[in-house]
Amino acid sequence: MTALRQAGEGEATWFGQPRGLTILFLTNMWEQFSYFGMRALLVYYMTRQLLFTQPHSSFVYGAYTACAYFTPIVGGVIADRYLGKRRAVIVGASIMALGHFLMAFEAMFYIALATIALGNGFFLPSLPSQINGLYRGDDPRRGWAYNVYYVGINIGGFLAPLICGTLGELYGWHYGFGAAGVGMLAGLLIYLGGQQYLPADVRAKDAVPAPVDESGPSGRRLVLVLGAVGLAVTVFRGAYEQVGNTVALWAESGVDRRLGGLSIPMTWFQSLNPLLVMLLTPILLAVWRRRAAAGYDAPPARRMALGALIVGGGYFLLAAVTWFAGDVKASWLWLALFFLIFTIGELFVLPIGLGLFARLAPPKLGATTVAAWYLAIFSGSLFAGMVGGLWSLLDRSSYFALLAVIATVAAGLLRLLDQPIRRIDLSQSEN
């Protein structure tokens, strides 16, 4: 690894991090812009333009997000063994841009969704799995790299509903979908222009295979523990994914969005989550650093469990608000408070979980192991689609209370995994 990509004296950096990290999060920032831009419009487009029923729209939404996170399992293996991570990102981004532009044509709706999901399979696991290669093993910055990366990609998530959502809602759905495609092309161009700052590709089929210790962190214990974490995250996402689905429907029909003489566009609320990610991450990182310096650093599973519990608290708030509001529309301030609580919980779960999978990945299988993280998102999205179908069957308060219970169950599962994960970390450090 060159001096440029190592943490050390004379290293060229941007914002105190390797330049490659900036390239990676800018690339994913624009990919997230395209994804969240399309997602902000998707449910409304299906119910208003295509005239799908609410249960059918929720099913399509859940099936699409599930497929978008299933294809990385195959794409990660292909990237590790044959294409290499760089080529996989380029191929995936190109296919995804095509899919976003196809969304501008009603007759191509399902084909467009399938095309985006296919491209995502190559892109999604191959980009973050390059982060570890930017740092030496003893670089203290590596522990915070995924939180920094998470802030970067949420800039795209913040801008997307404001731009794509506003274009789609005010000027026509196809303008919003077209803007998402332009964003995907911007990410591809940034990635192509920053190749010199990224770690070199090493494909598994070109590497000399190392013996596998079945009792070590790369053996059966690792697979079982990561599988258990994936199960807990699957349950968690059953509640988490409702932000773009049933919570968005409630924002349209159950929230008083008046501000002065204006009405806040419903898609703008989708920008609150990524905006809060950007604002809250530096605060959380500062708190975690102080706690670590004082010897009170919480292990990953405990942080994730706390985050899931906080998300459950956010949904409990909505259950209480809808209970007391009855048939009257709730103030948009309650929805904003929900997003604040929700985002704090999210920051304890998602970047930490992604970093956990990437850190424990066996050598030469980085994209494949990160793809396993997205397998949990796949199964969680399917679960979320089924949970979303209950929106039409339950009253609003009972539905949000159910989401609070689901998030709390996930918190309990993650807390039970604390000791197994710590044992694997200890074993890995000893090896």
TrEMBL record:
GO molecular function annotations of the record: peptide transmembrane transporter activity
**Which processes are annotated in GO (biological process)?**
oligopeptide transport
Q: What is its main location?
A: membrane
> Does the keyword field hold Zinc?
no
Q: Which UniProt keywords apply?
A: Cell membrane, Membrane, Peptide transport, Protein transport, Transmembrane, Transmembrane helix, Transport
CDD domains the UniProt entry points to: MFS_DtpA_like (cd17346)
Q: Does the keyword Transmembrane apply?
A: yes
Q: Which domain of life is it from?
A: Bacteria
GO CC, any one term? plasma membrane
Q: Which SUPFAM superfamilies match?
A: MFS general substrate transporter (SSF103473)
Tell me the InterPro entries matching this sequence: Dipep/tripep_permease, MFS_trans_sf, MFS_Transporters, POT_fam, PTR2_symporter_CS
User: What membrane topology term does the record carry?
Assistant: Multi-pass membrane protein
User: Pfam families given for it?
Assistant: PTR2
- Tell me the compartments it is located in: Cell membrane; Membrane
Indicate the transmembrane segments per the record.
21-46, 58-79, 86-103, 109-127, 148-168, 174-193, 222-240, 268-288, 304-326, 332-358, 370-393, 399-417
Recorded hits in PANTHER family, A to Z, give:
PROTON-DEPENDENT OLIGOPEPTIDE FAMILY TRANSPORT PROTEIN, RESISTANCE PROTEIN MDTM, PUTATIVE-RELATED-RELATED
Would you identify the family this protein belongs to, as annotated?
A: Belongs to the major facilitator superfamily. Proton-dependent oligopeptide transporter (POT/PTR) (TC 2.A.17) family.
Per its record, how is this protein called by name? Peptide MFS transporter
